[in-house]
Design brief:
The chain has 156 residues and is an alpha+beta fold. The protein is built from four helices and three strands; from the N terminus they run ααβββαα. Helices cover 44% and strands 26% of the residues.
Amino acid sequence: MTQLPDRRKPQTRRQRVLALTPRDQLEARWATLGIRAAYRCVRGPETGMAMLRGRMGGTGNAFHLGEMTLTRASVALDDGAEDDASLGHGWVRGRDRRHAELIALVDACAQRETWARRIDDELIAPLEEALQARRAQASRTAAATRVDFFTLVRGE
């Protein structure tokens, strides 16, 4: 199966990968980078609800599918620089406050040129590969249980 190039903005790609990665894997990978940044929470972490919308067949009229628990956090780096680039945001499904805070910290650090490349190359890329491997394994597992139905036409 050929992989299409990811055309999303780097920040959108980063947020997606961080939110879908289990917290323990994210913490372990983050620790291996050795980036020690002092930060303070600007907002949260706080848990709330988000309305989910769906479309029939992916193209029909939008409808409210239901609600989902969501945790968000915003952090600012405390490194003396007073610019907006040191503000990071994190959102994660569920109630894992530490996960949302960690995503916000990674997001804030990734906005610094000194850390951005290391974060994308040594953190995001391997985590994205792991997500793709898990997705491929889930597809193989589902394909193994696939049943092909066919109709037997009987002559009259």
